[in-house]
């Protein structure tokens, strides 16, 4: 899909998981990729008036 390297079926499964569990952690290669992905998702949500919060976090090693 647009902000993640997943297909539509994976995106739908992820959406259902978020709805059922209230959130989801998505692993990325590094914090910069996490920030870019989160910003892209958040911008798409604002554009479509969807009340989703998406932010990058550093889980540490």
Describe what this molecule looks like in 3D:
The protein is an all-alpha fold and 61 residues long. It has one domain. It contains two helices and no strands. The chain has helices spanning 8-21, 31-47. The protein is globular, with a radius of gyration of 12 Å. The N and C termini lie far apart (28 Å).
Q: End-to-end span in angstroms?
A: 28 Å
**Low-confidence sequence ranges:** none
Report the structural category: mainly alpha
Please tell me the overall pLDDT: 90
Shape: globular
How helix-rich are the residues, as a percent range? 40-55%
**What string, H for helix and E for strand, traces the elements in order?**
HH
The number of helices is: 2
Beta-strand content: under 5%
CA radius of gyration is 12 Å
**Largest sheet properties:** none
Provide the number of structural domains: 1
Number of strands: 0
Keywords:
61 residues, mainly alpha, globular, 2 helices
In a few lines, what is going on in this structure?
This protein has 61 residues and is an all-alpha fold.
Helix and strand topology:
Layout: H1 8-21, H2 31-47
